[in-house]
Amino acid sequence: MTLFRAVAVLLAGATFLFACGNGSIAADNADPPMKENELIVLAAPRDGDPYYADVAAAIRDFHIAYAQAILDHGDDVLILVGEKSYSRYAQSLDARHLVIAPMDDIWMRDFSLSNAAAPVMFRYTAAGQGGGRRGQTDADAVQERLAAHLEEAGLVFGESDLLNDGGNVVDDYAGRAVVSRKFLRDNNLDEERGRRALREALGLRHVAFIEADEQGGLEHADGVVAFTDPNRLAINSYPGDPAYAASLKADLRAGLPGVEILEMTTPYDGTAIYDDRFGSACGLYTNMLVTPQRIYFPQFGIAEDAIAFAAIRSWTEKEIVPVPSAGVCHMGGGVRCMSWQLRGENAERLRQWAAGRG
After folding, report:
1. In a domain, 9, yes or no
2. What is d(CA 200, CA 223) in angstroms, rounded to the nearest whole number?
3. What's the rounded Cα separation, in Å, for the pair 65 and 70?
4. What is the model's pLDDT at position 35?
5. Count: domains in the chain
6. Is the pLDDT of residue 184 over 80?
């Protein structure tokens, strides 16, 4: 991976590289993070990419509706596009929200920076590109394309050689995170060393390791849980699998002292799956995007939408912004999976970089 003014620190056999100026997450009893608007970055499919050819229009429609919701509610958005797709997006969005900087995949969450408050780039895993040796080669190439732009823009962040996708880091920006045990298997770590490694990389106080609800493939925590506020977790309900539900809650309580767990209706729908390697995100309201002031909340055009929306609104004082997601959820992700979050100086540097590229 490209190094950014970094120094190496060795821990439990893994190399951690921290950029100058990278801060740590607030301690448990610290004041809540100051509310600020975020820059949310999305990526269009690469022009001519055969993998997304059949769904490129659906992705674009989702991006445009999502971007408009972001802008209408006070946050900012930037979409990375190719030269051909630029004109299609520009029909609906102002040019300042678009930049010609094509990515090799659309799931920005996974190969970008984890944690907007104390950003770190983990090494994107092979699973994100289908698995296997070729998958890791492809994953590294996807991430290096983004890393080159981040270096050019002068963003400040930490780097880690640990394998972990951004979708497998669910954090509350107050020192707590949930990560699936795939992280441990990928990095040949036991829980003690894995917890220590994540504390060092992200400045965490508490880490809960969970089993993913579907073994194999991505195994991301953000398809299972979401922090609505510090130490308050919304989780999927599993009425058909009480043993898994009990194990999940036990793991969360063991790793996150005093955590408040709130079960959300989960009308999972796996009847239409775009790629069997990645499953579906249809009916998973936990794949929400949480910012300091708002929650961008997936809606699927089903009766349970209203139930889930009422529940999340009663659990937090944050503004809840509905985002129609039925057109993309069968690809295995949606609101959170497609979103890279930045704030503060890094957000401003990326805006300036985008403006400079014309």
Report:
1. no
2. 25
3. 9
4. 60
5. 1
6. yes
Average pLDDT across the chain, whole number? 90
What CATH number is associated with residue 158?
3.75.10.10
DSSP 3-state assignment of 4?
coil
Distances in Å between the Cα of 111 and the Cα atoms of 32, 54, 285, 316 are 28, 23, 22, 29
SS3 content of the chain, % helix, strand, coil (to 5): 35, 25, 40
Structure tokens at 106: 């659309």
Quote the CA–CA distance of 219 and 209 in Å, as a whole number. Answer: 12
- Sole residue written with tokens 């090494």: 123
Q: Is residue 125 part of a domain?
A: yes
Give the up-direction half-sphere exposure of residue 216: CA atoms within 13 A in the CB hemisphere. 4
pLDDT in tens, 79-127: 999 999 999 999 999 999 999 999 999 999 999 999 999 999 999 999 9
> Does the residue 32 lie in any domain?
no
Task: Say what angle helices 344-356 and 132-153 make with each other, to 10 degrees.
Answer: 90
Query: Does some domain include residue 5?
Result: no
Supply the range of the domain harboring residue 137.
Answer: 37-356
**What is the value of pTM for the model shown?**
0.90
Residue 147, classed as helix, strand or coil, is helix
Is pLDDT at 13 greater than 60 in this prediction?
no
Token pair in block for residue 25: 């997450």
**Amino acid found at 311:** A
What pLDDT, in 10s, does the model give residues 294-324?
999 999 999 999 999 999 999 999 999 999 9
Q: At 180, which amino acid appears?
A: S
How many angstroms separate the CA atoms of 207 and 253, rounded?
A: 10
Residue 320's beta-bridge partner residues?
295
Contact 223, 213 (CB under 8 A): yes
Grade residue 215 by pLDDT with cuts at 50, 70 and 90.
confident
